[in-house]
Protein 1
Amino acid sequence: MIHFEKLLKQALRESYELNMDQVKAVTNEMFSCSSGHKRYFVRVTNYKTIVEQQAEVDWTVWLHDKGLAAPEVLFSKRDRSIESITYKDKEIRMVVYRAAPGEHAKKKEWNKETFERLGEEIGRIHSMSKLYQGNTRAINDWHMNDE
């Protein structure tokens, strides 16, 4: 994995002009990255078609632009929300997100108020999504995805 993390670091520098101090795998598809005090997450996948992935990213950008709790997508120097890199002779796609402020709630911090706030935000996302005019046909329901 260390070789891939170095490759990802180079790709972020070349495609986004981001000089990362650290790139660390969170899962097989998600990487936590930092540059000074700035934090990012990079999702690296290729199990969805480019149409499906672009539809998801476009929706996320729309939600963020509407002020909802969705991560900010960073666009590359070529003004793309999705860039490709080659690893082991395979093309894989990456999306860079600016990390949201704060920390993940620890399990001991889970309580009624936390879940009420989470439910309210999910409700806002659901309500606003009814107004979305983008390519919704390419976005599968969560249970239809391979991830």
Protein 2
Amino acid sequence: MEKTVSWKRPSKSWFKFKTDGATRDCSRNFGIEGVLRNDEGSLNCCFPRRLDGDANLAKVLAIREVMTMQLFLWANLLNLIIESDSSNAVTWMNKSKAAPWKPRHLIFQNIVLKGKVADWQIQYTPRIGNR
């Protein structure tokens, strides 16, 4: 039996940014994307990007993209929930020493950005919630 996972609205005055990163086959080409919705579920912003790397790198870079947008586009005014379907990326953001060496420099960059973002949370949502 398949578990039902659906998008949940953030609390009043919060925004939720759903991130994703994916690779195709064994190539080093991948894409990242994000969708920002407010507490009413309205679409506020989205982004797609194509990059080179692996699947873990894609997930970590998607999170970094959101944090960068938060700081530089919205002047750190949003209460933000970052949602990822990568339990690895979420764990690494909360416990940077658990990150493997390859994406660790990006995790540390994210940690620096994290310290500059006013009010944010990161949470894991299973991939099935992307449907």
Protein 3
Amino acid sequence: MQFSKSTDYALHALAYLANLNPSGPTGIKQLADVLNVSESYLSKIMTNLRKDGLVNAVPGAKGGYELARPASRISFLDVILAMEGRQQLFECSNTTSKQHSMLVQETPASGCRIKRVMDAAESQFFDYLSNQSIQSVISQ
């Protein structure tokens, strides 16, 4: 599993905005220059972050982007979900095999044991990311 470059840029953009707070909104050109990415690509990223309520877009000549809430209340998981979407990381696709049937027969009430392990790992992964905020990385 690998997160997209968009997620990487989104995390860095939010960290940059958090460092500037409360100096006002940051224009897309300045942000793109700092991140060394095209304005059009970054605009798409910032639109996703705005739609998920992580940044505000401030119109006008002195407008730009600012955090929609304190950096301490923006988790890595919030950003990943905004950029990657909300989907389960593991799907048991081998449901018609004899092996899968044996695993489910032994524990029918709880389903496939392999899926249980993968779901538990995903849950721990998401819990960890939900406890890491943008503020936590800029405060280190």
